[in-house]
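Throughout our pipeline, every protein is held as a single compact record rather than as scattered files. This encoding replaces a full spatial description with a residue-level series of whole-number codes. The remainder of this section carries one protein's record, kept here as part of the documentation.
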Amino acid sequence: MQCDFVAKAKTEEALMKKIAEHAKKAHNMQNIDEATLSKIKSAIKEV
């Protein structure tokens, strides 16, 4: 699945909350599996 969602947060915990909310609303994902979580974490960049 390709997704261009961008979020910013001061902590990883806050960022993961935003990502989880996006996953629920935009992709109808109630849970994020380990494979998807790994992809998400590899895409996180500090700016």
Remarks:
- The chain has two helices and no strands.
